[in-house]
Amino acid sequence: MKLQSIFGALLALALLAGCSHVAGDAPYRIVDNEIIFAEPDRAEGQHDVLQLRCDPIPVVRVAFIGLGMRGSSAVERFTKLDDVEIVALCDKVPARVERAQHTLAVNGLPAALEFTGEEAWRKVCELENVDLIYNCTDWEMHVPIALYAMEQGRHVAVEVPAALTVRDCWALVDAAERTRRHCMMLENCCYDFFEMATLNMAQAGLFGEIVHVEGAYIHDLRSLQFDRENGYADMWRLRHNTVHTGNPYPTHGLGPLCQLLDIHRGDRMERLVSLSSDQFGMSAYAARKYGPESPEAKVPYALGDMNTTLIRTAKGKSILIQHDVTSPRPYNRLHTISGTKGFAQKYPVPALAFDPDAHRPLSEERMEELLRRYEHPVIQEIGEKAREVGGHGGMDFIMDYRLIYCLHNGLPLDQDVYDAAEWSSIAEMSEVSVRHGGVPVRMPDFTRGAWRSVQGFRHARIE
Ligand SMILES: NC(=O)c1ccc[n+]([C@@H]2O[C@H](COP(=O)([O-])OP(=O)(O)OC[C@H]3O[C@@H](n4cnc5c(N)ncnc54)[C@H](O)[C@@H]3O)[C@@H](O)[C@H]2O)c1
Q1: With a 6 A CB cut-off, is 417 part of the ligand 1 pocket?
Q2: For 100-151, what is each residue's pLDDT tens digit?
Q3: So where are the chain's domains?
Q4: Which of 51, 30, 66 is nearest to 453 (CA)?
Q5: Core-most of 15, 48, 204, 388, by most CB within 10 Å?
Q6: Measured from the CB, is residue 118 less than 6 Å from ligand 1?
Q7: Which fold has domain 1-38+187-378+417-463?
């Protein structure tokens, strides 16, 4: 009973907190049946950070903030990277800092500075001997930490989604432009082996003109969301999904697709419409787990089980993005590519097909042969070690490797602050579209007109 009342209180708080940017001072207006978000002017003297290069950093000194499920595995991966020094570890829960400290010790690394408590992240951002803040806290803490870190002169890597509102996306863009610091969202799915191979194929022209792409995050997270002991800290994900609908987690599916479509490197996402089913899955799960009369089963969860968002780009391409974390379904990110010459899909079964025989997919043998032939140069460089280190099969390590490689060599990062803003802003825009019955949303241009100045997405590499 005690746990139930705690749960009820948490949800009540969530309901109150979550309403603040759904209603009230709406950051958008509706004109001619179209939702238009404000596009604030760039401050005088501020310039874009497209292809931002900063001074090379010989040894990247890193501080980790947020050492839960994701942060603790990031620390483990960083023990396997060259050219880094882990300077500080921070979590509001002391035991999590201890656990990460133990990871350093068993890997033969010196102890890092320890920070605990709700507000200790400020002190971490202020450390003079830190180059990079690696932020693996829950969604609500991403933006405050990222903004403060950049203001203190640090580069920032922030977990997905980087921000939950369009306004916060603009805040990240403005902070990065003002401070000339990197702000990279840690979209690891851009570095998975199939995604990298199909990116390489696309850039070699195998799919012709890419016309339509599909991505998703379909991952049954019901047990983690409802696990008070071993799930998300303070049940942050369930609290969010209690009050928000739309697609709160769009970036895993969308990131690799935006790289394929050269988004803000010659094209841009212009308009979206979004539709959600009602919610059935969480209530049914909660009723089974806690009983039909439990508070958990009676909560009116806002998140529809399935959200589908459709986006159209300036160059006339279409993107479909789905989100479902509350249905018993096999894991799926779709990763479907349809072009004038060929087709690829990763889930549920990998397939490649090409003109003039695209009616049937290539045999598994032919597909494997092509995937090997078009293995991305970055994978050739680090793929084997990444498979050994692991982290979602290796993609997490490739992401970390690339981040450190680019900082070390003073190169533009693979994902810039505009990627973080464009991909994350779908969270609020999809929710607003859903709440207005599927009304189209005009998507802001976070580059403020500079999206044509770089042509084509490329991973920067030293000669
Ligand atoms: N890229 C991926 O594949 C992937 C996978 C899982 C999670 N994530 C993302 O990683 C982030 C963390 O997810 P998780 O599963 O590790 O959640 P989690 O709840 O296990 O970890 C969050 C941690 O942040 C800490 N924290 C919260 N507020 C803090 C504060 N003020 N100061 C210091 N520490 C604070 C919590 O104590 C907790 O340890 C989320 O943004 C999530 O979306 C990404």
Answers
A1: no
A2: 999 999 999 999 999 999 999 999 999 999 999 999 999 999 999 999 999 9
A3: 1-38+187-378+417-463, 60-186
A4: 51
A5: 48
A6: yes
A7: Dihydrodipicolinate Reductase; domain 2 (3.30.360)
